[in-house]
Design a protein that fits this description.
alpha+beta, five-stranded antiparallel sheet, ten-stranded mixed sheet, 6 helices
Length: 355
Amino acid sequence: MRAHRRVRIAAIIGGAALFAAAATAVLVVARSLPPRVCELPIEPEPEPEHVPVAPAMSVAQSTPITTAPLPVPAPPADVGFVFLAGRHTYVSLDEVIELPKHGRPRILEDTYPVTIAIAEVARRDVPASLAAWLRHGAKIDGNWHVRVTGFVVIARVRGSPPDASEDLSVWTAQSVMEHGRPMLAARVDGAPGTFARRADLPEIELFSQGGEALIDDARERVLASSPVADVQQRWQAGSLDGFWYEANDARFDARTFVHPRTGVVWVVIHVVRPQECDVIGGNVLGLYRMGEAGELIEVQLRGAGLEELDQLIDLDRDGEPELLSTGSYRADIWRANGDSVLSINVPEYDLGCGC
């Protein structure tokens, strides 16, 4: 037993001696090496989360608006104008795409004074980017939901065929497709309207009509403006009496609108006298908004290209108005600064009065 204990003690002492010798060897080697900084693994600090900070705004800027040009995106593929062609209602799909494969065009009957050619597009030939219209349908004028039942290529013209080409004597389906700016359109099962958006997307906001506040002030500003004075100079140079905006065929539109979400009041003054042949015409638009203190703030005062103003809408839901304008043969959505967002029209080939 005592011999066995001596063996265990000797083993323990021997192991300790070996450990001490190894530690001494490590210390000798460490002293022979150049000094070294201990490099412990350090986890990198996470980068601070980026939190966008809005620039400081004064009270007067709390409802941002600018007269500088606003960025204009490509024509939105999820919005189109509603129009009738024959017995059906269609939505224009103003995408910048090549027209898809389609059937043989044909002339629709009883559409005078517009001549319409239409060609069916099979569902298998509809661009993939438009498949969502079939799945979700459309919402017309923000009010009612309609189904999309098919797609067509459609072209429209008016006027005299020889004025489009001296080789033409009558409109044919092929010549209408050639001269009528063919476009892709969705056929819907609803009643006519003005504009439509794909039904699964946020609705376009429609401004409501306001009262008479600030209209008189806005009217005075527009009538005293340079754009109105420029037309008046041409009017007087043509030996015409009075003011051009008081002519029998002039239109003076003065309205207020209220944004449905922000509650901001907007004032629109639109003065127009058609320019036809040698008739002196003018077209001036004044757009104002009511400030927080009830003051009138000018947003735009310029010559306008719109025939008449139907409605203010908020297409992008950014609080800024777009101007919806429809006429007999065209429809437009404009930014406040006059940049076009969306436009369709029926080309006219007619010399008319000979001017």
